[in-house]
Amino acid sequence: MNTLTMKASIRKELWEFKNILTWVPVSLAVLIFVIPALNFFLNGVDTHALFIRLERLVDFQYSHSPEVEKIFFIGLISLFAPFLVLSTIVQLYYFLTCLYDERRDQSVLFWRSLPVSDSLTIMSKLVTGALVIPAIFFMVATLVLVTILIIAFIACIVFYVGYDISLWGMWISSSVISAVSIIWITLLPLAVWFLPLFAWLMLASMYAKKAPFLWAVLPIVALILVEALAVHYLDFSQPFIGKFLLDYFVFMPENVSTADVVTGINRFAPFQAIASKIDFSTAFISAILFYATYWLRVNKSES
Predict the structure, then answer these.
(1) Interval 38-91: pLDDT, tens
(2) Domain limits of the chain?
(3) The pTM is what?
(4) Cα distance between residue 40 and residue 256, in whole Å
(5) Distance set, CA 191 to CA 94, 182, 196, 231, 297 (Å)
(6) Residue 27 CB: number of other CB atoms within 10 A?
(7) Side-chain half-sphere CA neighbours of 160 within 13 A
(8) Which residues have a Cβ under 8 Å from the Cβ of 108 and sit 6 or more positions away?
(9) Measuring CA to CA, which residue among 153, 171, 155 is closest to residue 69?
(10) Which residue among 105, 138, 212, 213 has the highest number of C-beta atoms inside a 10 angstrom radius?
């Protein structure tokens, strides 16, 4: 596979979706700063309560340093969570439209005239949607975190110099770099876990002549309804499709009991919980759906 061609294909995908990939994460980042700023200007700050809390933090940072690390990691997840939610929504939209739009406006005829194979085109769309898009959102979230840390660093200097309040122990206990690295590493198993969903959406995007969203949703709903009726009236033991989807996409207590983020037992809890969902069926179903998408792109008439 030509690396330069792959990079060019990914850049093409980003160019086509540049507005949504720019303004959605940036708008969320702005809101994170604007809302607290508005609260500050409208309600002000109770300085007496603030200094009482700071004095408690001074004692807490050294006597409960493991707890500081847990609290920081939970706060970090809370910061990245809205970016992850929006990223997932954008990913679903991207996979639903990435193959449909280029057939609707006939731009597929131009792109197919270039020396880029259909397999590489599908691969570039997969890499863009599964990895590059969430990486963009996480990059913005990381920049927000860096800005917050800079503000916190300046505040620590002010409190230390002006009021003799030392909060430097919070920095030592928080383990900023390792915590952010763990959040970023989770992107890979998350992408693999969602592979069957991404492949199904790409297949719907490739097949649909109109309304790819309905083509993606209605067959699944129809299968679940038919299976439910069969189980109810034909006395089948249990619904296979519904149970499979529920087991695969929904986290049960057994998936997270050994990796509880809230209690801080293991900071790799998100990674482990998502990885526990990945098995042979993930690769098998994804491969079938991606091949079907490839076959349709090669053989389907665009006229």
Answers:
(1) 876 776 655 656 556 666 665 655 555 566 677 778 888 889 999 999 999 999
(2) 16-299
(3) 0.84
(4) 37
(5) 14, 15, 10, 33, 23
(6) 13
(7) 10
(8) 102, 302
(9) 171
(10) 212
